[in-house]
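Because showing beats explaining, we let one protein speak, sequence and backbone structure tokens together, and leave readers to judge.
___
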Amino acid sequence: MGNKLMKIVTRLFDYPIKRKPICFFRQEDFSSTGDPLPKDDASQHGPMSEYDKLVQSFYARLLEQRRAHMEEEEKNEYQGTKGSTKYPGWDDMTIANLHSLFLLFDKNLNGMLNYDDFSAVLESLGDETSNDYRKQMFDDIDRDMDGWITYDEFLEVIYHFHPQEGDTLTGLAKLCFDIAENIKFVSALSVGEQLEYGLF
């Protein structure tokens, strides 16, 4: 009895148990242990049916679309927003920081800010303009006059909040860029350097 039990236990430990892949692979392309089946395995199943051909072409097209999508994302990530003509002078970090602020103050979770939310964002950024000027800028960017601004309108009003002097950033646009640069600087520091600067 002990000998049989020992054989079963050793067989269990000798048998490689692998997790089955779960991302974008068909289960029938793998064995029960997770090893890929050989490609010439079709000869064992006989000729391919029309359904199998359709499924194979579907997966081939899906794979091609995913590759094209990933290449497009990599290209966009490489180009970034530095080459953007809409907000020259801002980089990815500035846009990401403003997006985080927008989401933070979007209390209604509707993807828009009302005037009170917009004013709270400006105060968090350290802007000290008057309430009348803020209201005027908000009303100017709120083209449909519904009392709400979208994320794109928010970026536009922040960028043009103060008149630009040529190609150099000024006012709130410069302040947002400087904040993003500070965040970038701090995130590049090691924990020891952050302790040295007194950031904890």
Q: What stands out?
A: The beta strands are 112-113, 149-150. The chain has three domains: 1-45, 47-79, 92-196.
